């Protein structure tokens, strides 16, 4: 049987780092943690568990701080609806406000709904954000606007 490589020749193999390495993935694609967080939150089964929401929130934190509107919107909703801490809800409210100002329809809808409720109840602000969301095609915002008291 003949050897495939003559004995006098050295063989060098080229290798690449695995793309599936967690450290490589996050440095090569800074949006990967955000995409993973959104996938987790949108998963019907996983997205309902507290521990998964906590993990997703941690993954959304850095993109939200960097001004990524979708991350601000999703983290804001998460903090407003799923946190027991008043401080976290305040931060969530501010993140929603930033995302709504940047034109995120879902954030505008959420902010409008929050302004319709107890602690934040300011119907003029609710109407403003719901009108913004409705102008972008939110049927839910349009329905809520119909139920709001008329402007004075």
- Helix and strand content put the structural class at mainly alpha
- List how many beta strands DSSP finds: 0
Order of helices and strands: HHHHHHHH
Question: Fraction of residues in helices?
Answer: 55-70%
Give the percentage of residues in beta strands. under 5%
User: What is the count of DSSP helices, taking H or I runs of 4+ residues?
Assistant: 8
Shape: globular
Cα-based radius of gyration, to the nearest Å: 23 Å
- How many domain regions? 2
Largest sheet: none
Instruction: Summarize model confidence as the mean pLDDT.
Output: 83
Question: Which regions contain 5 or more consecutive residues with pLDDT less than 50?
Answer: 1-6, 9-28
Terminal CA distance reads 96 Å
What features would you describe in this structure?
Helices cover 64% and strands 0% of the residues. The protein is an all-alpha fold. It folds into two domains: 73 residues; 48 residues, no CATH class. Helix 5 crosses helix 6 and helix 6 packs antiparallel against helix 7. InterPro entries: ISR_Activator (IPR052748), Sel1-like (IPR006597), TPR-like_helical_dom_sf (IPR011990). This is Sel1 repeat-containing protein.
């Amino acid at each position: 049987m003949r050897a495939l490589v003559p004995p006098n020749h050295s063989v060098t193999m080229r290798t690449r780092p695995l793309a599936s390495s967690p450290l490589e993935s996050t440095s090569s694609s800074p949006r990967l943690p955000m995409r993973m967080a959104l996938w987790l939150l949108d998963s019907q089964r996983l997205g309902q568990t507290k521990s998964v929401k906590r993990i997703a929130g941690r993954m959304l934190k850095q993109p939200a701080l960097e001004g990524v509107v979708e991350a601000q919107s999703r983290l804001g909703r998460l903090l407003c609806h799923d946190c027991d801490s008043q401080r976290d809800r305040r931060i969530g409210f501010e993140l929603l406000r930033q995302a709504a100002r940047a034109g995120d329809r879902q954030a505008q809808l959420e902010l409008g709904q929050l302004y319709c409720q107890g602690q934040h109840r300011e119907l003029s602000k609710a109407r403003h954000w719901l009108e913004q969301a409705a102008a972008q095609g939110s049927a839910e915002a349009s329905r809520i606007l119909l139920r709001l008291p008329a402007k004075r």
